[in-house]
# Entry
Amino acid sequence: MIPAVTDPDNNEILKSLGCDLHIHVLPGIDDGAQNLNDSLALVDAHYRAGIRKIIATPHIRMDFFVNTQESIHNAWLRLTEITREQYPDLVIAYAAEYFADDYFLTLLDKREILPLAGNYVLVETSLRHDLVYFGDIIREMILKGYQPVIAHPERYKAWHNNPERYNEIYELGVIFQINLLSIGGAYGPTEQIMAERLIQQGWIGALGSDLHRVSQYKYIKQAVENPYFKSLRDLKLLNHTLLSD
Ligand SMILES: [Fe+2]
# Structure
């Protein structure tokens, strides 16, 4: 299997990141990589960028991406069968990006959760609508001993004009994870400005690429040029903790 050609000049631009803990790199199980070639193109781009640990986080969302621990494990096996040989010093682990809904609550009850590592669990909510019960689900996670890692708070449109919502969720004791793609302008100026504002406030505990396809890599390159990204370099992020986990 030959990886798709990627830009050779990614030279270690993400080495300071530690690991990527949010990426849709597993083949054919969500809206990210659709097949092994897509997966390998992403892996190859990240490897050239200096990444040596990837935590694959496919969506688990009722009605959209009904993945199970088994479907994720099988996709991970397909990918790592190849990458183990081609990139022997690259670690690929797997977890999931959970949509906070009733199905997620059921999984929480059964403790059938794939954490990023330890008790860290990546969770997202609606990009468009402010689901009022989101805070309750976060509280439930904490009650059950999980540490919520909120995926891309800068992307929740319903929160953009409501700084109180950011405070309210942050103060529950969560880790905010912003996307490199947001810092690089991939979703537009509003998400970029919101990401920069959260960085400025010192509220960022983790970074993820949230890459779905290798064509988005141009935004990763833009992100690393952004002074706000550079300002995160000296911070201890979850990415660095999980590198050795
Ligand atoms: Fe994602």
Observations:
- The mean pLDDT is 94.
